[in-house]
Write a structure and sequence with these properties.
CATH topology of the largest domain: Rossmann fold
Strand content: 15-25%
Number of strands: 13
Helix content: 25-40%
Number of domains: 2
CATH architecture of the largest domain: 3-Layer(aba) Sandwich
CATH class of the largest domain: Alpha Beta
Largest sheet: 7 strands, mixed
Distance between the termini: 30 Å
Mean pLDDT: 90
Low-confidence stretches: 23-29
Structural class: alpha/beta
Bound molecules: guanosine-5'-diphosphate, magnesium ion
Length: 349
């Protein structure tokens, strides 16, 4: 699960990234660099895992992980320029995008409205995707002249993409197109799920007026600079600031939950004395596929999934008690895994 942090220059991308990772600049052990980009692997705090680790006292406790990428902005040029390729090229590798929108007075003057900043970047992405579609269509034309045929479904799909993009609409407006397996390889920017992070001044808690809020878009407000400063404090010091600024949930935790939501991810758990582990999967995943996430042998030899919900286990106090109360179910391959399911796969090898 990798999310790219995007936004106009000076929107506060680096600041938000630092707030998320808790480490400004080069320090911090979780960052890695690639081609001027920074990648942070973040542990997803989950008190359900904490509870299970207490219950099972396992040798190893494994939380879910999520990655945030801050793309390289070295020489980031205008749309269509050569250096733009690096920035958007890195963004293309991400599963979803976090768009930072500036809502503070900064070195580049007063903020414009979120509408303006949002649509400026949106149009940049739409333009980018349109270029990709047109290039591919030209390629198909050339190939056809040489007697090479594309898969028959491809040209009409590309045509539909072009129609939408030419109207200035993002591909995510057509969920069928955005999720078509045939188009996956194009890694279209405007098809990616997106979270908008409005970056406020320290003193402002509210969402600014936003006339044309993009429909169905996940939106949160953070105070990037403040959160970055707090992320660097000692726990005692930060507690004071969190209270003074009425922050009940850190930007990191809020961004993580939104990231799970826009990517339709949930977690199931496996437990035992060796390991307690969280497994992030797509929602609506059948048990057989979830088994495959753990190990291909378990998928191949799948017999049944023994399932109890976290809440039931917690309420009963032990697996044994949950079983006695009839709360442990035996489910088949087709069972749809729910968030918080604790699963013991039974399988043959
Ligand atoms: N007042 C205020 N300044 C901020 C905030 N976030 C970023 N800045 C400042 O805005 C400038 C640009 O931020 P930066 O994170 O480098 O933006 P980037 O170009 O998108 O990476 C820097 O001088 C930051 O200190 C914020 O929430 N409030
Ligand atoms: Mg920056």
């Amino acid at each position: 699960m990798k999310l790219g942090i995007i936004g106009l220059p000076q929107a506060g991308k680096s600041t938000v990234f630092a707030a998320l990772t808790g480490a400004r600049g080069e320090k911090g052990g979780t960052d890695s660099f690639q081609k001027g980009a920074r990648l942070a692997t973040i542990t997803v705090a989950d008190d359900r895992i904490d509870f299970l680790a207490d219950m099972y006292a396992p040798e190893k406790t494994t939380y879910a992980k999520i990655e945030y990428l801050l793309p390289s902005e070295v020489g980031r040029g205008a749309s269509g320029s050569a250096s733009e390729g690096e920035f958007w090229g890195q963004v293309r590798t991400c599963d979803a995008l976090v768009q930072v929108v500036r809502n503070f007075e900064g070195p580049v003057g007063s903020p414009s409205t979120p509408d303006v900043d949002f649509s400026k970047l949106e149009q940049e992405m739409i333009f980018n995707d349109l270029m990709v579609v047109e290039k591919r269509m030209e390629r198909i034309d050339l190939d056809q002249k040489r007697g090479k045929k594309p898969p028959p479904e491809e040209p009409p799909l590309l045509q539909s993409c072009r129609q939408l993009l030419e109207k200035g609409m993002p591909l995510r407006h057509s969920p069928e197109l955005a999720s078509d397996p045939m188009l996956k390889g194009f890694t279209f920017l405007s098809a990616k799920p997106r979270l908008v992070v409005v970056n406020n001044e320290d003193e402002t808690e509210e969402m600014p007026a936003w006339a044309q809020r993009p429909e169905g878009m996940e939106l949160i407000v953070v105070r990037g600079k403040l959160e970055m400063d707090i992320a660097e404090m000692s726990p005692e010091e930060s507690e004071e600031f969190l209270e003074a600024y009425h922050i009940t949930e850190s930007a990191l935790d809020r961004v993580i939950s939104s990231s799970f939501r826009i990517l339709n991810r949930i977690c199931f758990f496996t437990v035992g004395s060796d390991e307690v582990k969280a497994w992030p999967i797509r929602s609506r995943t059948p048990a057989l596929e979830a088994a495959g996430a753990v190990h291909s042998d378990i998928q191949q030899g799948f017999i049944r999934a023994e399932v109890v919900s976290f809440e039931d286990l917690k309420a009963q106090g032990s697996f044994k008690a949950a079983k006695k109360a009839g709360l442990v179910r035996l489910e088949g391959k087709e069972y749809t895994v729910e968030d918080g399911d604790i699963i013991n796969f039974r399988f043959n090898v």
